[in-house]
């Protein structure tokens, strides 16, 4: 009896314990099952964040058109400031005619006007900008996607894609850059306010004169120097831009970062890249605006044996300007001992970028390498901001036009 009552008293506790354990197991299993969707959502959100740069790949034609329109708009908007930068970097006068950015802008506007002064060389700049940026953005999107699809780190892909894109755009861009730079430096035809050494009647006349007197290859003067400047500039610009946009998206917690952050990321990326590459821009401008005829034509230099007193700034310039062709550039390529060094006109008797940088640094110091950094920093910031914000805006517009249902 005692054993029976003890067994009856003990036996109910065992099933109850098993039942309780079973309920707990089932409840924990149910909780884990319920938590699976949350874990999947978190994992999916992480994956979306990781591949965000590839979630909305625009069609190539959209990227090409948006880039061409955005890039050309930015270049045209800032062309006058680019003229200021070119005048400061290529100013052959001593003492310098142009000093600060504001002084240069006001002087050109007051003396030469807008169309022929501040916007000199705008026609080749327009054509070269549109064709060049179309080629640039098409190549950039293609190479970026190719590298990311093959497992290359996005930051490296952005940097390398910028290099490849500018390499593809350079054959179109460089001839227009030569024409634009010379016409910017010249100003208007028969300019009485600034003696640049050039006197072209128009863009077509400039192209014909250069080909006739210097050969077709002269349209590609400074090709290597342009690549030295633009390849690192584009690589840095787009590496900065893509990384800053990713940071802005994480900060906002959304794919749409808003117009203020779009402008900030685009402008800061271009400005930083522009300031860093200013020395390369100085060398490029000097090489493209000096004439090889000065170094290849030593015949009209009987003044070399003269005494130092006869090589003053009052006697040398008239001889050089009349003994040579009208397109002769006052940037000297003769011996430093027989030539008066002008402000901003070091004796670059070379097409080597490294040697050119060394010459400028030795003769003008570190600030000579950064001549025009103010206009260039402002120009690249505003131009980059305009181009990249328009690029993103036009991509969204093209997508809405191609998928009207998705916009609803």
Automatic annotation (TrEMBL):
Biased amino acid composition, Low complexity: 306-322
Principal location listed in the UniProt entry: membrane
Gene Ontology, cellular component aspect: membrane
Topology with respect to the bilayer: Multi-pass membrane protein
Keywords associated with the record: Membrane, Mitochondrion, Mitochondrion inner membrane, Repeat, Transmembrane, Transmembrane helix, Transport
Pfam families (UniProt xref): Mito_carr
Annotated compartments: Membrane
Ranges for region Disordered: 14-41, 287-344
Residue spans of the Solcar repeats: 58-146, 153-247, 257-397
Polar residues: compositionally biased ranges: 287-298, 323-340
Similarity section: Belongs to the mitochondrial carrier (TC 2.A.29) family.
Name this protein carries in UniProt: Mitochondrial carrier protein
